[in-house]
Specification:
10 helices; 3-stranded antiparallel β-sheet; alpha/beta; L-2-Hydroxyisocaproate Dehydrogenase, Chain A, domain 2; Rossmann fold; single chain; about 300 residues; 6-stranded parallel β-sheet; 2 domains
């Protein structure tokens, strides 16, 4: 399927959804629809963004709604709906609350945007992405989760701070579940093509990996009310753009595995190619035994939760 200027629907007009819509607007995506159960919330933010078009030099239609009929024809649907984390909560504490919300959202998408590609942001990310695929019945490649892009961006920032280099020259790679079991890969993380293993000692690298894994919780603790939204919303927008414009970006995302990395019937963070059909290819890195064991351990953690909490 080839997609043109296109239409993106963002479900949930909270901080993450609004940030995603705002970034998409600045990328001159043809049409952005912001949907929220509180219609005025969605309409007000959409109008505010629309009025910024002349200031930031973007065009296109940005609208707000509470009606799923208005997402009809959407090429990409970004789902941010759900309860955010609060201090002391893990992403996994949110499972039950957000699963009910995703069931309702999935039904709306299935009825009104049946040909769309879904980008999931709702936490716990890997579980909710799996749940959304089951609720909609969409082919797994058309349901993908925003995970490793955000985690890699966080790792990139910590590396650039430590080394005193530009974010632009750092390429980080983080696989695994979007949570405390994520798997940062220093061997595949570079500064201008040079592996960080040649630029930092093991203790420094380990500290950065640990801070990356706790990156979301660190922000939740600082904010006290709410959780991160600028980086997560922007990461989701990058995914939506890659799909809508068929850019075929190589990005770490939560994708459905069918034997890759020795895993199957699970959504977990791995490098993929994102194009107009969603996940067009899963890239299998040559992992060393400890790295592969960490990735499989992360998957096992979510497999157990899928069974014990969601009943899959």
């Amino acid at each position: 399927m080839t997609r043109g200027a296109g239409k993106v629907a963002v479900i949930g007009a909270g901080n993450v959804g609004a940030t995603c819509a705002f970034v998409l607007a600045q990328k001159n995506i043809g049409e952005v629809v912001l949907l929220d159960i509180y219609e005025g919330f969605a309409k007000g933010k959409a109008l505010d963004m629309s009025q910024g078009g002349q200031i930031l030099n973007y065009d296109g239609k940005i609208s707000g709604t509470k009606d799923y009929e208005d997402i009809e024809g959407a090429d990409v649907v970004v789902v941010t709906s759900g309860f955010p984390r609060k201090p002391g909560m893990t992403r996994e504490d949110l499972v039950g609350k957000n699963a009910d919300i995703i069931s309702q959202v999935g039904q709306g998408i299935r009825e009104h945007a049946p040909d769309s590609v879904i980008v999931m942001v709702t936490n716990p990310l890997d579980l909710m992405t799996y749940h959304m695929q089951k609720v909609t019945g969409f082919p797994p490649e058309r349901v993908v989760g925003q995970a490793g892009i955000l985690d890699s961006a966080r790792m990139t920032h910590f590396i650039s701070q430590t080394l005193g280099v530009s974010n632009e020259d750092v390429q980080a790679m983080v696989l695994g579940g979007h949570g405390d079991t994520m798997v940062p890969l220093p061997r595949y993380t570079t500064v201008a093509g040079v592996p960080i293993t040649q630029l930092m000692d093991e203790k420094t690298i380990q500290a950065i990996c640990e801070r990356t894994a706790g990156g979301g919780g660190e922000i939740v603790k600082m904010l006290e009310k709410g959780s991160a939204f600028y980086a997560p919303g922007s990461a989701a927008a990058i995914m939506a753009e890659s799909i809508l414009k068929d850019r075929k970006r190589s990005l770490p995302c939560s994708a459905y595995l069918t034997g890759q990395y020795g895993l199957e019937d699970i959504y977990i963070g791995v490098p993929v190619i994102l194009g107009s059909n969603g996940v067009e290819c899963i890239i299998e890195l040559d992992l060393e035994d400890p790295e592969l064991e960490s990735l499989q351990g992360s998957a096992a953690f979510y497999k157990e939760q899928l069974s014990s909490i969601l009943g899959y």
